[in-house]
Amino acid sequence: MSEIAAFLQTMFGRPVTDLKPFERALTHASVGRDSYDRLEFLGDRVLGLVTASWLYERFPDEPEGQMSKRFNALVSRETCAEVGRQLGVPGHIRLGKQAREDRAADSDNVVGDVVEALIGALF
Fold first, then answer.
1. What's the CA dihedral at 85, 47, 42, 100 to 10 degrees?
2. DSSP 8-class letter at 62
3. 3-class DSSP state for residue 60?
4. Closest of 89, 77, 82, 73 to residue 12, by C-alpha
5. Which ranges in the chain belong to alpha helices (H)?
6. CB of 111 within 8 A of CB of 79?
7. What digits encode the pLDDT tens for the residues 103-122?
8. Three-class HEC string of 5-33
9. Structure confidence by residue, pLDDT tens digits, 24-65
10. Whole-angstrom Cα distance, residue 17 to residue 106?
11. Least confident of 8-17, 37-46, 48-57, 67-76
12. Model's pTM, two decimal places?
């Protein structure tokens, strides 16, 4: 089993049959054309929809403005990065030489984007 397959199985609690989208989700643009950018776009929308639906059901009497505040806190780049760090995502991000030297795996932007890309790959 590859390192990525083992990581994903631990993270999701079950084996992943098609590693290709997850490998792409873990690949920064500094590595090449097949980066996480498109999956991040998809994952961001999936995360938004699931979070909005959960808030709508969980807080049935709450006004829209308060739900929006909760939503923005839950789907923020910082929150995604925090979750990603708790899951050990930074150690699995594939980076080009310059991005490694710039410590991109420590960046909230990169880790948060990768978390969203992993959501897109899972979707």
1. -10
2. S
3. coil
4. 89
5. 3-12, 20-25, 37-58, 64-74, 77-87, 97-101, 108-122
6. no
7. 999 999 999 999 999 999 99
8. HHHHHHHHCCCCCCCHHHHHHCECCCCCC
9. 999 999 998 899 999 999 999 999 999 999 999 999 999 999
10. 29
11. 8-17
12. 0.93
Instruction: Label residue 21 by pLDDT band (50, 70, 90).
Output: very high
Q: Which sequence positions are flagged as catalytic?
A: 44, 116
Q: Two tokens at 101?
A: 């030297």
Which residues have a Cβ under 8 Å from the Cβ of 11 and sit 6 or more positions away?
A: 87, 88
Contact 28, 99 (CB under 8 A): yes
> Which backbone phi and psi does 34 adopt, to 5 degrees?
-85, 70
Tokens 């390192």 belong to: 3
3-state DSSP call for residue 76? coil
- Residues in CB range of 66: below 8 A, 6 or more apart: 59
> How far, in Å, CA of 49 to CA of 6, rounded?
29
